[in-house]
Specification:
Shape: elongated
Structural class: alpha+beta
Strand content: 15-25%
Distance between the termini: 56 Å
Oligomer: single chain
Number of strands: 16
Mean pLDDT: 92
Low-confidence stretches: none
Length: about 475
């Protein structure tokens, strides 16, 4: 893609994505990690850091981190250490967070992202480390201006995935988060629900004059909860920093919050450096030592990844890179398509119906694919009716509209509404003869070389047959009849 610049400045972006691990229990206790329980009902003394309690590491969270590292083509470190990050969290009662610092479980990796112009870009992964999530402060309930704390989330397993500062535009950042969320969902380590907070993004943004090699002072925008907000916040923050610099000011290293309603960022606090957190190894937790056998076992049981599935769709179904990319953006859409294209249905026709007709309709309805009123089996049956000539493509769209409203099978709709395509040449020929007899002036025009009136005759035949005449038969018979 062409370079994204603003008034002679280049934007430099690095992202920190926090992904809650799909685990039944918390990172260091057996308390449920399920979402949606009543506030403060999923907390125990370990989560609260009460005197005398000892954390016990959740093995499933470790396996999820290994799996994610492998999916990101990253180094899996056989030795990693949990540390105490000393920082005041009003919603983490221990007064520190158990995280990883110098020795994370996953090291450097990389990820390919697809951009809107068809290009791809490699984004480096700096590290992935495991840590416990904080609780949640709630400020918008009651009329007494008081704040409330819900500790259900405190201690939930969290993977922090840190990118290199390789992104240079809001679009690249959006593509990165989209691809990362897709990978996490494909390997089933995180549900990627940004609205519920199980996946959150912090964006580090700086600007520099085009051609400069030194990074500018960065600001971190915290807790962005949608891909759209990631992109909007970066764009605003980049322009804000440029305005400050152009007015002779200096960018302060700080943490900022994004207001989506006003589309602005505002200062939250000055930005800390690593030494401000006074990291030290947690004395209650042993170093994590991974065996080669454990890593190999996870590698051999990895599910198919988005890039691999995209290539398979292109090879197996002869789809374009674009169609394959759209269909493999999520595991749900990929599996839906494969159920539709089963029974040797036309792969391109099936892809068009899924990506254009179905996705477009669901978008208009405000529904996701999991709640589609049209099952893949029924959409496949609709494609069968098109392929065997029972209905035309135009009638199929009419049938599809009814399927969306009623969830009926296409076969039942066609039977009930009498929508079967007319392919009987005798019946179509009679209609054509009548229309030709009624339009001798247009027949003369056609025979004098005005081929544009051919479309008029096609339209008249389709109108007379209520759109049910087989278009191929109509075209062949009309050409014969009009030729004289």
């Amino acid at each position: 893609m062409s370079a994204y610049t603003i008034d002679g400045y280049e934007v430099v972006i690095g992202l920190e994505v926090h992904a809650q691990v799909n685990c039944n229990s918390k990172l260091f206790s057996g308390t449920s990690a399920a979402f949606g329980a009543e506030p403060n009902t999923q907390v125990n003394p370990i989560d609260l850091g009460m005197p005398g309690v000892l954390p016990v590491l959740n093995e499933a969270a470790v396996d999820a981190a290994i799996k994610t590292g492998l999916a990101l083509n990253a180094e899996v470190n056989t030795l990693s250490v949990f540390a105490r990050k000393n920082y005041f969290y009003p919603d983490l009662p221990k007064g520190y967070q158990i995280s990883q610092f110098e020795l994370p479980i996953i090291g450097k990796g990389e990820m390919q992202v697809d951009l809107s112009d068809g290009a791809t870009k490699t984004i480096g992964i700096t590290r992935l480390h495991l840590e416990e999530d904080a609780g949640k402060s709630v400020h918008d309930i009651g009329d007494d201006n008081s704040s409330h704390v819900d500790l259900n989330r405190a201690g939930v397993p969290l993977m922090e995935i840190v990118s290199e500062p390789d992104m240079r535009s809001p679009e690249e950042a959006g593509a990165y988060v989209t691809k990362l969320r897709s990978i996490l969902r494909f390997i089933d380590v995180c549900d990627g629900n940004m609205e519920q907070g199980s996946m959150r993004c912090d964006a580090n943004v700086s600007v520099r004059k085009i051609g400069a090699t030194e990074f500018g002072t960065r600001c971190e925008i915290k807790n962005l909860n949608s891909i759209r907000n990631v992109m909007r916040a970066i764009e605003f923050e980049a322009k804000r920093q440029i305005d400050v610099i152009e007015d002779g000011g200096v960018i302060d290293q700080e943490t900022r919050l994004y207001n989506a309603d006003k589309n602005i960022t505002r200062t939250m606090r000055s930005k800390e450096d690593a030494h401000d957190y006074r990291y030290f190894p947690d004395p209650d937790l042993l170093p994590v030592r991974l065996t080669g056998e454990r890593i190999t076992n996870i590698r051999e049981n990895m599910p198919e990844l988005p890039d691999d599935m995209k290539q398979r769709f292109m090879d197996q179904y002869s789809l374009s890179a674009y169609d394959a990319s759209v269909l493999t953006q999520s595991k749900t859409s990929a599996l839906y398509y494969e159920r539709v294209v089963a029974e040797k249905r036309d792969p391109k026709l099936s892809a068009n119906w899924v990506t254009v007709e179905l996705f477009g309709a669901l978008n208009n309805l405000g529904k996701d694919l999991e709640h589609s009123p049209v099952t893949p089996q029924d959409l496949g049956e609709l494609i069968d009716l098109i392929q065997d000539g029972t209905i035309s493509g135009k009638i199929a769209k009419q049938v599809f509209a009814t399927m969306l409203e009623t969830s009926q099978s296409p076969h039942d709709i066609v039977e009930e509404q009498g929508l079967k395509q007319i392919s009987d040449t005798g019946a179509i020929e009679q209609v054509i003869d009548d229309i030709i007899a009624q339009n001798e002036d247009n027949v003369a025009k056609y025979r004098d070389g005005n081929e544009r009136v051919f479309g008029f005759f096609v339209g008249q035949v389709m109108k007379a047959t209520k759109g049910q005449a087989n278009p191929q038969v109509v075209n062949e018979l009309l050409k014969q009849k009009l030729a004289g």
